[in-house]
Amino acid sequence: MAGKGRGKAAAGVRPAKAGKPPKAAAPAGKVKAAKDASGPALAEARQRIDHIDLTIQTLIAERARWAQHVGRAKGPLKPALDYYRPEREAQVLRRVVDRNDGPLADEVLVRLFREIMSACLAQQEPLKIGFLGPEGTFSQQAVFKHFGHSAHGLPLSSIEEVFQEVESRNADFGVVPVENSGQGTIQVTLDMFLTSSLKICGEVELRVHQYMLSRSGHLEDVERVYAHPQSLAQCKAWLRQHLPKAEKIPTSSNAEAARRARSADDAAAIAGQSAGHVYGLKAIAGPIEDRPDNTTRFLVLGRELFPPSGNDRTSVLVYVKDQPGALYNVLRPLAEHGLSMNRIESRPAHQGLWRYAFFIDFGGHVDDEPVRRALRDIGEWASEVKILGSYPCAVL
């Protein structure tokens, strides 16, 4: 009897509750009909999905052919750089978000359309994008988010080298971090604009999740932690609680930290999951960043300004005159012309002792009339105004 009871339980038959007779079993014919009903419905759904897949593939191929047609309309075939229009891509992605009624999230659809546009653009020759390497860095993730996986990434050893490779035309564009929501400005990026002729032609906002990675995957083995200084700062509370005695060793990038950590069981790295995949490390814990909204903003570097997209940001570098109220007089035109200032940072101007330059971000494009008027008025109070870029605001 015990064996029979186990057999019924395994088959999914529950014993009757006390005081209530068990329900009568359904006739065999009705059970079979219910099973048969699910079969055609499932087959029909799969057939419909197959038909939709075919339609999607056909439309993507048609889009790619029209992208080729656009290229031919501009004359002899040129590199992808000559066809890339960030303002146009931003407009397309905004329309994707506006049309979306679910069930897929806006971020998912934006990523899908970004990859379609990336593949269509790369039909002749993919864009070459310099970034702070090696492979597995958050900068590489920002490249993929903005340009798609069809772009060709060039991992470089420093932010300075990213600027240099774009200036020398070895890279079409560059992607560099400029600020973190918790740790503030990446100063070396701002300092490069003091002497560089490059323009900002895009921005990327990347949610940054930090992981503790090691070869063994055991926290008790860790005696030293490699990480970029920004990551050490973003995870200091977690480190203080879980690894108070471990040595903290700064590195040039989180991917470099992961590369070093793979060589010993007593070493660990703070990096993203992608770095763990690249360098064969196991996740000990994560996300371990102190702030759940930890986000890094990246700038896209190019050699020219692009037309407005309809939702843009302008960045300028202003050298103020040494006189009372100089900064007030520089900022006042923004308010007078209805422009919202998003950010202001000061840095040594490198033009004399105790002289400073101000990096200012505000809404609008240099081709917009209010921005034109504001820049004209600012120029009356500043010793120099350098337009760093007018570019589409980040789409998700």
UniProtKB/TrEMBL annotation:
Q: Where is the Chorismate mutase domain?
A: 36-128
Q: Where is the ACT domain?
A: 315-390
NCBIfam families found in the cross-reference section: CM_P2, PRK11898.1
Reaction equation(s) it catalyzes: chorismate = prephenate; prephenate + H(+) = 3-phenylpyruvate + CO2 + H2O
Spell out the CDD domains in the cross-references.
ACT_CM-PDT (cd04905), PBP2_PDT_1 (cd13630)
EC identifiers of the protein: 4.2.1.51, 5.4.99.5
Give the superkingdom in one word.
Bacteria
Mind listing the UniProt keywords for this protein, alphabetically?
A: Amino-acid biosynthesis, Aromatic amino acid biosynthesis, Cytoplasm, Isomerase, Lyase, Multifunctional enzyme, Phenylalanine biosynthesis
List, alphabetically, the Gene3D superfamilies matched: 3.30.70.260, Chorismate mutase, Periplasmic binding protein-like II
Q: What is this protein called?
A: Bifunctional chorismate mutase/prephenate dehydratase
**Which biological pathway?**
Amino-acid biosynthesis; L-phenylalanine biosynthesis; phenylpyruvate from prephenate: step 1/1; Metabolic intermediate biosynthesis; prephenate biosynthesis; prephenate from chorismate: step 1/1
Chief location of this protein within or outside the cell: cytoplasm
GO molecular function of the protein, one example? prephenate dehydratase activity
For this protein's source organism, the top of the classification is:
Bacteria, Pseudomonadati, Pseudomonadota, Gammaproteobacteria, Lysobacterales
Biased composition range(s): Low complexity = 1-31
Residue ranges of every copy of the Prephenate dehydratase domain listed in the record:
128-303
- State the signal peptide span: none
Subcellular localization, per the record?
Answer: Cytoplasm
Q: Which Pfam families match?
A: ACT, CM_2, PDT
Q: What does this protein do?
A: Catalyzes the Claisen rearrangement of chorismate to prephenate and the decarboxylation/dehydration of prephenate to phenylpyruvate.
Chain segments carrying region Disordered: 1-39
What InterPro entries does the entry give?
Answer: ACT-like_dom_sf (IPR045865), ACT_dom (IPR002912), Chor_mutase/pphenate_deHydtase (IPR008242), Chorismate_II_sf (IPR036263), CM_dom_sf (IPR036979), CM_II_prokaryot (IPR002701), G/b/e-P-prot_chorismate_mutase (IPR010957), Preph_deHydtase (IPR001086)
Q: Which PROSITE patterns match?
A: ACT, CHORISMATE_MUT_2, PREPHENATE_DEHYDR_1, PREPHENATE_DEHYDR_3
